[in-house]
Amino acid sequence: MATGLATKESPDLGMPPPIQIDTGRLGRSVLLSILVAAAALDIFVSLILGRGPVLGLVVGWLLLTTLLTVLSRRVEGSRKAKDRFVTLLVWSSLVVALLPLVSLLFTVISNGAPAFSGQFFTYSMRNVVGSGGGIYHALVGTILVTAAATVISVPIGLMTAIYLVEYGHGKLARWITFLVDVMTGIPSIVAGLFAYALFALLFGEGVRMGLMGSVALSVLMIPIVVRSAEEMLKLVPNELREASYALGVPQSRTIIKIVVPTALAGIVTGITLAIARIIGETAPLLITCGVTDSVNFSLFHERVMTLPVFAFSAYATPSFPVEASQQRAWGAALVLMILVMGLNLVARLISRVFSPKTKS
Amino acid sequence: MPAAPSLTSESRQRVGERVFSGTARGAGIVILAILAGVALFLLVKGLPAFTAQKSQINGGHGITAYIWPLLFGTVLAAVIALAVAVPLALGVALFMAYYVPRRIGGVFAYAIDLLAAVPSVVYGLWGITFFAPHLVPMYAWLDAHLGFIPLFAGPYSSTGRTILTASLVLAVMVLPIITAITREIFLQTPRLHEEAALALGATRWEMIRMAALPYGRSGIVSAAMLGLGRALGETMAVAMVLSASGIVTFNLISSTNPSTIAANIALNFKEATGLQVNTLVASGLALFAVTFVVNFIARAIVERRKDFSGAN
Fold this sequence. Notes:
The complex is a heterodimer. Chain A is mainly alpha-helical. In chain A, 74% of the residues lie in helices and 0% in strands. Chain A has helices at 2-9, 28-48, 53-76, 78-112, 118-122, 136-167, 171-183, 188-203, 210-235, 238-246, 251-278, 283-288, 307-316, 322-354. In chain A, helix 9 (210-235) packs across helix 11 (251-278). In chain B, helix 6 runs antiparallel to helix 7. By secondary structure, chain B is mainly alpha-helical. Chain B has helices spanning 3-51, 62-99, 102-117, 120-145, 163-188, 191-199, 204-233, 236-241, 261-268, 275-309. Chain B is built from ten helices and no strands. Classes of the chains: A mainly alpha, B mainly alpha.
């Protein structure tokens, strides 16, 4: 295009004139002053006009975007302007995405921390009227139910992963891989209904017990374990297997003695993350384990309280006084968050400390 | 015979082999059985609701009339959540893949992953005490200025516990999974494509539009569908945040809202007896079917993409 225009203007010259590549560029000082102007408008609207921080931010952001885009279009051309606009959008989306996280952490900590006390962790809610009482029964229940779910899920999940990586190359393996992926999307409430329907057929209507909750959680946990273990087993170098076969070691022993130990750190990390994922599940436990105020150490008999269900029911169906009940709910939520974050941290530590060193 | 002992040890070894591989295979089959079991048991337990007389079902108009408003609410909430979450997730994923060094992008990825780890009951508590009340001024504004749009017809809810609030909470909840998958896909974009675009003088956005987005299109679609599956099945946050009355309406900001299947089950299961349980299980079966189809399609897209790109 440019050359076409140029030849019209100067037909005699064989050489095209130089094309202007470098258009103007917005200097750092201009960008800074736009930012300052937007911030000033934000402060003006939210503080001086008193219309609240949200409106201020929105107006400030709009000013920033329009000013930057229009100026950039003038000085730098439309392509650069579009690029700047998208950059701004991308940065804004990050801020918008992180805001809920910050707000959530702040809300849970500030509401939950006052509930913490010695009594909160060592007392159940049995015969507690008014304030006081604690989450001991829910802690016990959560640990028992989650542990049982882990005991069910890990062998099945790990063996399936071994099958998929070491043995399965046929149609069955492909279907299992595919359906495991689909299974990760089963809604948690459906898993709970499944456990309920299964146990209702076995033990009759209206049955509630801890094991039911464990079965429901296993449905959610197994696919996560399979996926992560599969990824880890795939990372084990084939040379290790071949070296073992060359020494005459049969396949099963190779898997048990060579493959799984090599991938162990990764597998344990995956299991820990899976536990972190299911320990906060509420809906399936609500309809399988039920609600109770007492400590129950048995998974096979009667209702078991769990932390997420405790948080839910203390808030949704509060006892008198409501404030005390709500404070317990927030306390339980904070404990749950600490558990989940702790498990995530432990998982990361395991994978960092115990993973085989790749660089020597 | 000297060969005999070695033969027996070998055959014992064979047996051990077979037991081990059989167990591994068996575990895989157990998973298939569980999946089939989920469908089967829900069907068995839900069947009485389908065969019962119409007047016996809650509401008195049969099982379809019972499930339909719930299904409507479920899909509505999930679709709004997706409409908010997908652009946001795309932005965040682009940021982590192209706008900061990969290392720092990884740190942000960790922060976003934390969002995925937060239990839904905590989202529920946050939504009902912090988020919903803070949205009320916005609803008031929408009602006053955009009330002519049926979506914002109002009158606005003074508690903020509307289907729009529930959808926004859902959006926050599905954001991590969509972001994580899209980021993975962007990181897989062939380096040469990106550098070729930049070498031709493309700006960063043009490079993304010409190299990254076309390459990752199917991946983004399937990530969105996986997020949709998550949003359809999410229970507690909706159950706590939404003040539901089980009607069918597109009015997003009023105090009468459609409920969702999952939330309806969670809230009513405790008191349900007899046929009510069957009805709830039947609605759960409908939810299972919908999410199964959504996830199935999403995974199928991913599988097909694998075949094309050769990436694993």
